[in-house]
Structure formats: structure tokens, C-alpha cells
Amino acid sequence: MSSNSNKNTQLVSSGRKKAYTHGVVNPVVQRASTVVFDSVAELKEAAKKRGDKTLFYGRRGTTTHFALQEAITELEGGEGCALYPCGAAAISQALLSFLKTGDHILMVDNAYEPTRDFCDKILAGLGITTTYYPPTIGAGIKEYFKPNTKVLFLESPGSITMEIQDVPAMVNVAKEHNVMTMLDNTYGNGLHYRPLEHGVDISIQAATKYIVGHSDVMMGVAVANKKYWPTLREHSYLLGQCTSADDAYLALRGLRTMSVRLNQHEKAAIEVAKWLEQHELVDHIRHPAFETCPGHAFFKRDFDGSNGLFSIVMKTGNQKAIDAFLDSLQHFKMGFSWGGFESLVTANLTMKGLRSTTGWDLGPVIRLHIGLEDIDDLTADLAQALEVYKQHL
Ligand SMILES: *Cc1c(COP(=O)(O)O)cnc(C)c1O
Asked: Which residues form the catalytic set?
């Protein structure tokens, strides 16, 4: 376990300089395109810093953005944080900042689906090739490096099937090959996992999920170490990545309560998962804190906690049973996100199209996000919906 002391205090106090708050508790929402200067000297000074916590031009951010960037940089422990209009933009921009035609990247096979699509549709068109490696490969990743490999991309736990990666082992191999590493840390959120402490170069999050926490803002963040921050920052600027001050404000407000929300999500999800584990229709639970989750030992070694997201692998099923199950749920709404205060569900009969080098010969996968509702209501809802599932088998 890495040190997580004083993280609650940090979440409350970070990014609250008087220059940002003007003496109230929260930063002022500073909406701006144009920044105006009173003198040539002031303009020259601003141009030199170019928005590094100094006003320069709207696209470089305002004090509201600086407050959020500072807080996220402290949370993840890096040199700087770039903001993006969504998590997908943070991922694509981080990759584009460091790749050129002829390069090769290693992408984990259980990556978030739009990440895969970006590699297959956009990077491929630019002449950048992708090899998908099995999420449980660990130090075996060394067999996958090519002379033109530039980036090793990780996501841990991976989307839907939740395998946890042996990050330090893989980072070591990448360093031996002089290859940079990026990790989609949306699950680990910076409180439970800080990739840069494990040698990763860039940690990316869909802040849309737990940082915002209320399902009302799209936002992406990428925190880089000293070596890669200048390029990430400049390339993100050149490709026009920016967010509104209002969205930055809401993301920062969400961040203040992230720790207490996560505690409740974690507790409730473990309780619901334990209940589900006993159910006759359930084969096993894919929750990082459960021994049945591949890579659980790495979770125990590297993470400080879990959250509301997990999957269940069913013993058997068909599309009719899944559809009837989904339609019968009352508290779990169908939706492709997670990290908000509400419970959500998605289901996949197979992993077809979502995996290319890792097979899937197990049953249907139902992914749940456990929200902040009463736990009894959630288990009762799942109990009646599983009864409906059974009737359709
Ligand atoms: C949701 C998600 C993203 C994308 O974030 P958006 O803000 O929806 O673009 C990226 N990675 C993971 C793991 C996600 O769950």
C-alpha cells in the first residue's frame, strides 16, 4: 500500500489560494476568452509564462482552471495537469502528443471501448500501429516490444472484466526499452491509486466519473511527470483542448466530497457484491477487492480502496434473459457511465468486439455501479430482476 495520509485534508485545501478564491471558500468562476493587459511589460511577462497559472488567453485557462489543475496535480502527484472536454479527449490527446507516423503502441486488451476505437480508426489512419496485449501479461510484456514501440498504455482495473495489472513489473520493462507509459486511472481516481508513484509517466482520468461525481459534467484530466509535462501541455494547447470555467468549477466542487462519497460507494458495493456472490445464477464476482477477480493480489498490494463499480459473471444466459432483467430493474438505470450518485447497469452477452487477443468463454457479464441509495433497496431490486432473468432461461 502506498501512503495515503492527509489525503482528505489535501482534497479540502488544494487549489484554494487567495488569488483563485478572492477571499471566499471556493474559486471565483472566471469566464474569459480575452485577457487584457495594462502595459507592454505585463503582456510580455504573461507571454513568457503562457498560462502557467498566469492569465494569458482564454484557451490557456483562467484562475478557475488553475485551481482545479493544482488540486488534481496534488491528488495524482505530478508536475502538471491538463484539462480536456471529456475523458476520451484526454486519452486521445495524451497519445497524439507523443506519437507520429511509423510508431507502434501497446494497448491493453480490456481497454475502454472508445480507446480501442481511437487506436483502430484514428491512429491506424495516421500509420500508427497497435498491438493489444492480455491484461494479465505482467513482466511477459517484454515479448511485445518492437523497435518502433513508443507508448505502453495501461488501464487497471480494465473496463467491464476488471482485471488488475501488475503495473510496477510492466513499467520496469517499459523503462528498459525506453518506452513511456500512460495509465487510464479513472477507477483509481487518485485517492485509491496514484500511477505516478508506481513509475507511470502520465495518469489519465475521466473526471466525468468520480471527480465530478454528479453525472452533470464531462471532463478529462491528464497528469504528467516532469519529463513529459511540457510536451503534453503544449500539444494539448495546440490541438485546442480547453474546458469552460463553469465545468472546471463543478469538477472542483465534486472533488471536495470525493473521499466521503467513495467510502459509501465502496462499502455498499462490497455488501451488494457479497450478496450477489451467493446467488445461484452468479458464477463469480469481478470486483477488485474479491479473490475471484484476476489480479486481486496486485489490487491488495497497490491500491488504497475500491469503489462502486464491479461486474458479475453469470453462469449462463441469453439475450432475452438479459433484456428482461434490465427492463425489470427499478433503481438501476441503464446507462454507459458510472461514478455519479446513482446506481447504473449495463450488460454484455459476450465480449465480442471488445477483446481481440484475450478470449472470453465465460457467461454474460453484468456491470453494476452501486450508487448512494439504501443498500436494501438495491439488493431487493436485484433479487426480483434475477428472478425475471431465471424465468427467461
Ligand atoms: C468513461 C470512461 C472514459 C471516457 O470518459 P468520458 O468523459 O466519457 O469521455 C475513459 N476511460 C474509462 C475507464 C471510462 O470509464
From this structure: 59, 112, 184, 209
